[in-house]
């Protein structure tokens, strides 16, 4: 598709042939990868983009019906890959983009060489014995706060998500990114993100994947990482020392090394840093 570059504000770099596509999480944009993506330029074709409604994407392309489920975002990933001829791509997805990558791989597994899932969660709501980290009332309260006072929500949530209190500049940047997003689109995306349940999709994934579980992650706790490790076929699990939900910002060196190790060695067994 000829318009994918403008629609998703695509940025490309690198001197290699194999594509590495970096997909940002909720409320963020491609700038969040600035400390990680350059490390892959020597051997890869590095592709950054903004989901519709984020960054400098074409907000006029937003369609509430299309984006009423994560599948709409997965379709965008496939549009991007096909439009740019990104064959045999490594897809690196943070947070909700991890499940977006999973859905895209189910639709067209031949498009991807591997998936790198950073802080993934197939379901945020507790459903005993499954522990997603949140009660449904928690999520409904979060969405209500976003609707009534989006700026206040961003200010309150950024430090919780970042979980690096000794480095307040990180939380301030995350808050700034949240506030740069259209609040109506952000609220819709949050509802889709936090109310989705992709647990039943996991066992159908055929593309090899790396699960990067952060320490002290308030959004995707250890129980979620363990669930993914047990239910996602062809996966390699790694527990990072990095705390919080955004290791590509707070601990870019460790995050970069984990991805590079995986790409160099391929699928393997679970291990810790």
UniProtKB/TrEMBL annotation:
Residue intervals of the AB hydrolase-1 domain: 20-257
Pfam families noted in UniProt: Abhydrolase_6 (PF12697)
Family: Belongs to the AB hydrolase superfamily.
Protein name: AB hydrolase-1 domain-containing protein
Organism: Rubrivirga marina
